[in-house]
Amino acid sequence: MVPSRASGGRGASSPFEICHLKFARGFTLIEMILAIGVAAIVLIAVNMAFFTALHLRDDTADMVDAATPIDAAVTFLKRDLQCAVTPTNGTSKILSGGFRAGNGINSVGVSDPVQIEMFTASGALSDSLPWADIQRVTYELKTPTTQNANGRDLYRSITRNLLAVSTPDVTEQLMLSGVTSVKFSCYDGAQWNDTWDTTDPTAVNTNLPLAVKVDIQMSGNANAQPVEIVVPIDSQTRTNMVLTAAQ
Q1: What is the pTM of this model?
Q2: Exposed (0-12), middle (13-18) or buried (19+): which is 179, by Cβ within 10 Å?
């Protein structure tokens, strides 16, 4: 006689109870080790991707920070050259001025030799300043004040008061640091010239060049390509001297 469950004996378990006992058991040690290993591999992969993204972000930020001063300097150079006014050719005209480019140029009020001197209509008009938009602008390299700095500093010097009877006030603006060299080349329609001077009445070049090429070599990498821009100049005149007709 088989004892029944009502009489307290051990009877056969139902299918539901067998299934419940089967799935109620815990994970084995091997399963735990495998799960931890898989989780560790996933975390390592995520960590590598995260630090790669951080490294890429830092490199991009450094490139943007390095390019920002160069972009600003190029913007000023283009505007000054495009707004250059017709030269005087040794005369004393008011709304015009000389254009000089080359090495060892001395400009009034600027202590260091300049690479280019021009009169340009890029001045900002203001109610608080009694100056016109024509100003004298020079670009020159100066020795940096910071010790152990690489290269030299490129400055933009501005003179607003062109009718000053004494030494004019010159405002200096730092454009770039870490510059090895800067070179201005002027195009006369046939070739590029390293020098250009319209201030001498006997000068060969009595007008503005057709275009100006600027080469800026940055320090730190001698094999790096220079920053090069070519700016066309549209302000041209056939002559800037008064012609007298033969009687």
Answers
A1: 0.67
A2: buried
In single-letter form, the type of residue at position 138 comes to T
In angstroms, the CA 235 to CA 214 distance is 18
Region of residue 195 (left: phi > 0; alpha: psi -120 to 50; beta: else): beta
171 with 158: CB under 8 angstroms? yes
- Taking the chain (247 residues) in runs of 10, the rounded mean pLDDT of each run is 50 55 65 86 86 73 64 91 79 71 90 93 81 90 84 92 82 91 93 89 82 91 81 70 48
How many residues are listed for the chain in this entry? 247
> Phi then psi for 101, rounded to 5 degrees?
-145, 145
Calculated CA dihedral for residues 142, 133, 78, 219, nearest 10 degrees: 10
Beta pairing, strands 171-187 & 192-193: antiparallel
**pLDDT score for 63:** 59
How far apart CA 136 and CA 199 sit, in angstroms, is 14
The token pair that represents 1 in the structure block: 């006689």
pLDDT of residue 240: 47
Report d(CA 121, CA 162) in Å as an integer. 12
d(CA 113, CA 11): 110
| Residue 74 CB-half CA count within 13 A | 14
Distance CA 77, CA 118 (A): 11
Residue 97 corresponds to which tokens in the numbers above? 């001025």
Residues 166 and 138 sit within 8 Å (Cβ to Cβ): no
pLDDT of amino acid 187:
95
* Two tokens, residue 187: 């195009």
